Amino acid sequence: MVKVLPILLLSIACTFAAPAPKQLVKLPLKAPHKRVALHEAHSKDLARWAHLSADSTFSIPAINADVSYLITVGLGTPAQDVDLIFDTGSSDLWVQSANYDPSQSSTSSDLGETFSIEYGSGSTSGEEYTDQVTIGGFTFTQEFGVASEASGFDGTQGLVGFGPDDLSAITSNGENIPTPTDNLYSSGQISSDVIGVYFQPITDGGSQETNGEVTFGGVDSTNSITYGTTKVSSATHGIVDTGTTLILLSSNDVTALYKNIQGAALDNNTGLYTIPSSQVSKLKNITFTIGGTAFTLTPSQYLVPANQVANMGGNSGTTYSWIGSLGDNESGLAFILGQKFLENYYSVYDTTNNRVGLATAA
């Protein structure tokens, strides 16, 4: 039996057909008859990467203020930075009037309406505005309250809620106001209307410490890549892509990997790395740890088979690796696991729940 391990952190870079009928349908996958040259495979993968590299999630730090968590939000143009209580149990954004001046923003608009919100721990009231809001470098239009009165919130600059929008209480007419996550999603800046949260306790004995993280558009996890027992990457995001041939790492990570293999060098003709024959027998396994689960490739799995080299435009007698470089990368994505990884595992692509599953093949 194959156990499918859900990995919620990987972007699905795959084209799907129309919804399947009720019964299970199996289709064979065929390798093309025409052998693709190594340099063509590498060039094709880099071209595909150019279309996949737009990051659709982003993370910002969360500040542990001992009894609540804060995130930094910019309000207006130019942005006036405020530290707001991060709250998933409510759905409104409001700021103390002392911490935001709409007259200093070129994009603010007074809606001419008042708001009043009752919380279990206090209450707040004031005027409603719309303005530009910036979180983690992403900007969108948001309706929020500017509080002239607030009780139970001493020492705080305001609050931002990320709960369901039907919890919205900021308008007098009872309409549901989209949360910042809703607006990031509707403006196409994140791929799903989801946030992930990571909290840690304060460890230094103080009253405030930046030790948490909020991820917008999905969830974040620390993945890693190791050569033998040597860690060569602490990656944060990656892609599982059946349309990519190779296994591609960021330039820093691929350099760190091949530093462990004496004499390994980039072959400019193919775009792949070559391994000296004297080192082949000494090669170690490479392990991708994703969502806490280790997926290991043996040397025979990440090397181009010797009997294929000449047919694929390589130099006969030279050993090539399927693991190549993405080049310089500013998107935050650290790897693409293409066909040469997926040939060794069973993969599931769940578009309904936006997740990828990987398991050992039967």
TrEMBL record:
Coiled coil: none annotated. InterPro entries: Aspartic_peptidase_A1, Aspartic_peptidase_AS, Pepsin-like_dom, PEPTIDASE_A1, Peptidase_aspartic_dom_sf. Keywords: Aspartyl protease, Hydrolase, Protease, Signal. Residues 1-17 form the signal peptide. It comes from the Eukaryota. Transmembrane segments: none annotated. PROSITE patterns: ASP_PROTEASE, PEPTIDASE_A1. GO terms for biological process: proteolysis. Residues 69-359 form the Peptidase A1 domain. The active site is at D87, D241. Belongs to the peptidase A1 family. This is Peptidase A1 domain-containing protein.
